[in-house]
């Protein structure tokens, strides 16, 4: 058996090498002949008129209710569902789309953010001589090129490094990656290449050095998945599709076919989730594109139909951007349990994932601590020992459900299909399931082709290859410069708007508020460390956002980047949305609570906060305990055994630092484990212990208390009777003469190394002193 495997492996590797050499020669000829590497042959031009606006949600609902019959009704507003709607409407079919939640609220917003053919699928195709897997990779690589072309503002090529730690792996992986280039053909993004150890460390300095042989770099695509999904939906709306989020399908409508006498699906009974209003939508053809919820819609058609969806949970985590280079990803091809882990820069952060484990279908998947620790463990294996991979550096975590399916048309109904499946029931319900994000357009094309054939619809071929999505038409890599020059936006904000909205960024800039500062002129940020501005909330409502969760997770990506920053931005987001949507105070409160619940459970806030609990162990050496007790008692002057907001305010006032009461409440609440409005000594020691272990990072209270301790330690208190309007305390080395103090200033307590003026108010202080004071030297 071992001999046979060895022979098989030798044949495969040898054959791969031969194919690679041939492929490289052909590829080289191609590159010499053509100037560009990626080229997508556009489909027939779309003859359907496109609107220069998209209707409001209310107008869309009115269209759904007033149209006697649609040609196609799509259920599901993920990438595949929106792709089906766009494909159908651009063929001239009267199209409707219904989504129970928000567009991209499910799996489509919780991906690895890659647009890829699938290196591992190609490996399986070769090793198992599986032609179906090969075709899937080939199709995905074509769709990768198309997606990069039709939405260049939302997507871009990304180099991904595959580090090699054994010499024999270098030719093996090189051959495999070169075959990946070969399969892509004239749609190869950039040719892969080999790096020496030193060059690999130059490109990816965080990489583990010991035993590193070299690395191979190949190219795939990366995108903003939720915004891409939304762009597809908005493009469909511009072409005339009646699309509505927060519109739930309660049941399928059926009528009897007069020719066959069989019941046929002819529409759906719907409910507006926001108002509770129910209505019918009639259609010649109904398409089920609900991802993990495929079987629930199939059972609306036929209760006896067997399940075909086998859901699998994939968890991702987000870490600070310093964990990876800005423009280089990392692939771990063989984790400890045989899975693949990606480690990628995304939105100036670092995303790591994914896991693959069976799960139940739910609208609210929750990341588990076990999965988070698995990813961290794998990341540690590849990063230098100089880089401490801390649990506390996980800024956000989420779980997405992959809708893996068994093919109901196959004899072997138990085998999982990695490709997509189109099935048509006896009553005419068309179901599209499986597949992957990258191939959404091909999946939609196959689905509409099947629907046209099964229902005798009058339409031509697909027009979506090369069809530009919302924001792509007039976008250019330098568009952001015009935003800076024409509107006075910060460069970082302008770049963000251009890469999020494309040529529609000007519409956002036009409604941006004046800051009142010299620079930037417009564009008030929602939170200081991210480039999202308040105008995006207003524009997001126009883009059909109807809840605060829509805004923090899909119109902006704050929830996916940093849950604490998202929570910080929530009150302002709710206020702006409240004005746009006429929310009363009770509705605002409900939205705020719902969004916090979403962050707590679905975006990893709970597992993050669980790192510090009542039962957390305090493992500090005695000297550290004494040091932290001393710091604590600087705030707890009365020896109460706990500190409150008043204690913190008192200390902050003494060092001339002002923080509003609401922010202080949030800061203490992060550490207040028993939620009694105060932080006890034991809770503080638990916090410091968790920080030392790396389980907690970025604690605002810990940083605040340490800073206060250092500033108070620098000050020498000089008892001087107050006279004439205040006390000026100057650092050692400053003199009355060097500061040009007015006559009458007196030097007091020179042995203390300070100069005090007891005769003049603070307006006499020199700029040198003002600058020094601004660095925490105190009045």
Automatic annotation (TrEMBL):
SMART domains: EFh. Pathway: Polyol metabolism; glycerol degradation. One of its GO terms (molecular function) is glycerol-3-phosphate dehydrogenase (quinone) activity. It is found in: Mitochondrion. InterPro entries: DAO_C, DAO_C_sf, EF-hand-dom_pair, EF_Hand_1_Ca_BS, EF_hand_dom, FAD-dep_OxRdtase, FAD/NAD-bd_sf, G3P_DH_FAD-dep. One of its GO terms (cellular component) is mitochondrion. GO terms for biological process: glycerol-3-phosphate metabolic process. Its cofactor is FAD. Its EC number is 1.1.5.3. Transmembrane segments: none annotated. The keyword Flavoprotein applies. It is an enzyme of class 1 (oxidoreductase). It catalyses: a quinone + sn-glycerol 3-phosphate = dihydroxyacetone phosphate + a quinol. Pfam families: DAO, DAO_C, EF-hand_7. Signal peptide: none annotated. Calcium-responsive mitochondrial glycerol-3-phosphate dehydrogenase which seems to be a key component of the pancreatic beta-cell glucose-sensing device. PANTHER family: GLYCEROL-3-PHOSPHATE DEHYDROGENASE (PTHR11985), GLYCEROL-3-PHOSPHATE DEHYDROGENASE, MITOCHONDRIAL (PTHR11985:SF15). This is Glycerol-3-phosphate dehydrogenase.
């Amino acid at each position: 058996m071992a001999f046979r495997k060895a022979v098989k492996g030798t044949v495969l590797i040898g054959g791969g090498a031969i194919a690679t050499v041939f492929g490289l020669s052909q590829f080289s000829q191609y590159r010499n002949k053509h100037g560009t590497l990626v080229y997508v042959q556009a489909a027939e031009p779309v003859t359907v008129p496109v609107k220069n606006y998209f209707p409001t949600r209310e107008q869309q609902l009115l269209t759904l209710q007033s149209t006697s019959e649609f040609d196609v009704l799509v259920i599901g507003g993920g990438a595949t569902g929106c792709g089906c709607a766009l494909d159908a409407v651009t063929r001239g079919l009267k199209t409707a789309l219904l989504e129970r939640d928000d567009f991209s609220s499910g799996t489509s917003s919780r991906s690895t953010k890659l647009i890829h053919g699938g290196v591992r699928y190609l490996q399986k195709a070769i090793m198992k001589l599986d032609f179906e897997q090969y075709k899937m990779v080939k199709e995905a690589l074509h769709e990768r090129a198309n997606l990069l072309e039709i939405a260049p503002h939302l997507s871009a090529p990304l180099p991904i490094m595959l580090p090699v730690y054994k010499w024999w792996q270098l030719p093996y992986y090189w051959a495999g990656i070169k075959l990946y280039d070969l399969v892509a053909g004239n749609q190869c993004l950039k040719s892969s290449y080999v790096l020496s150890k030193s060059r690999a460390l130059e490109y990816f300095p965080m990489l583990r050095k010991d035993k590193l042989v070299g690395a191979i770099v190949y190219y795939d695509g990366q995108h903003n998945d939720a915004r891409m999904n939304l762009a597809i939906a908005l493009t469909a709306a511009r072409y005339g599709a009646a699309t509505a989020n927060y519109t739930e399908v309660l049941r399928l409508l059926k009528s009897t076919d007069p020719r066959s006498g069989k019941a046929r699906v002819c529409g759906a009974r719907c409910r507006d989730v926001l108002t509770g209003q129910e209505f019918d939508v009639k259609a010649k053809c109904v398409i089920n594109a609900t991802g993990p919820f495929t079987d629930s819609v199939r059972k609306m058609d036929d209760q006896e139909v067997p399940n075909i969806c086998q859901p699998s949970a994939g968890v991702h985590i987000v870490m600070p951007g310093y964990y990876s280079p800005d423009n280089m990803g990392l692939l771990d091809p063989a984790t400890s349990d045989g899975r693949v882990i990606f480690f990628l820069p995304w939105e100036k952060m670092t995303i790591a994932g994914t896991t693959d484990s069976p799960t139940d279908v739910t609208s609210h998947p929750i990341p588990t601590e076990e999965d988070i620790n698995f990813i961290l463990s794998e990341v540690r294996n590849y990063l230098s020992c100089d880089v401490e991979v801390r649990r506390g550096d996980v800024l956000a975590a989420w779980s997405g459900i992959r809708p893996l399916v068994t093919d109901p048309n196959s004899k072997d109904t138990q085998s999982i299909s990695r490709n997509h499946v189109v099935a048509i029931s006896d009553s005419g319900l068309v179901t599209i399931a499986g597949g992957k994000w990258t191939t959404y357009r091909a999946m939609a094309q196959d689905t509409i082709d099947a629907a046209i054939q099964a229902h005798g619809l009058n339409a031509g071929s697909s027009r979506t290859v090369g069809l530009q999505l919302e924001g792509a038409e007039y976008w250019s890599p330098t568009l952001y410069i015009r935003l800076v020059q024409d509107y006075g936006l910060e460069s970082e904000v302008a770049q963000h708007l251009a890469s999020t909205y494309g040529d529609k960024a000007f519409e956002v800039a036009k409604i941006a508020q004046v800051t009142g500062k010299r620079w930037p002129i417009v564009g008030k940020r929602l939170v200081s460390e991210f480039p999202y501005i308040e105008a995006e909330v207003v524009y997001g409502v126009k883009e059909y956002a109807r809840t605060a969760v829509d805004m923090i997770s899909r119109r902006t990506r704050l929830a996916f980047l940093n849950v604490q920053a998202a929570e910080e931005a929530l009150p302002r987001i709710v206020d702006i949305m409240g004005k746009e949507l006429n929310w009363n105070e009770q509705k605002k409160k409900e939205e705020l609570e719902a969004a916090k619940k979403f962050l707590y459970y679905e975006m990893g806030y709970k597992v993050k906060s669980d790192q510090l609990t009542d039962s957390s162990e305090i493992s500090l050496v005695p000297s550290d305990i004494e040091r932290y007790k001393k710091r604590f008692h600087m705030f707890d002057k009365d020896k109460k055994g706990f500190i409150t907001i008043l204690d913190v305010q008192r200390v902050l006032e003494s060092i001339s630092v002002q923080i509003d009461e609401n922010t202080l409440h949030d800061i203490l609440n992060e550490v207040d484990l028993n939620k009694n409005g105060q932080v006890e000594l034991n809770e503080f020691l638990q916090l410091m212990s968790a920080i030392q272990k790396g389980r907690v990072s970025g604690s605002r209270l810990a940083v605040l208390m340490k800073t206060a301790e250092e500033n108070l330690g620098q000050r020498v208190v000089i008892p001087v009777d107050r006279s004439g309007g205040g006390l000026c305390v100057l650092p050692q080395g400053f003199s009355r003469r060097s500061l040009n103090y007015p006559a009458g200033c007196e030097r007091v307590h020179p042995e203390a190394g300070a100069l005090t003026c007891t005769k003049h108010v603070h307006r006499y202080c020199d700029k040198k002193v003002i600058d020094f004071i601004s660095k925490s030297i105190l009045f």
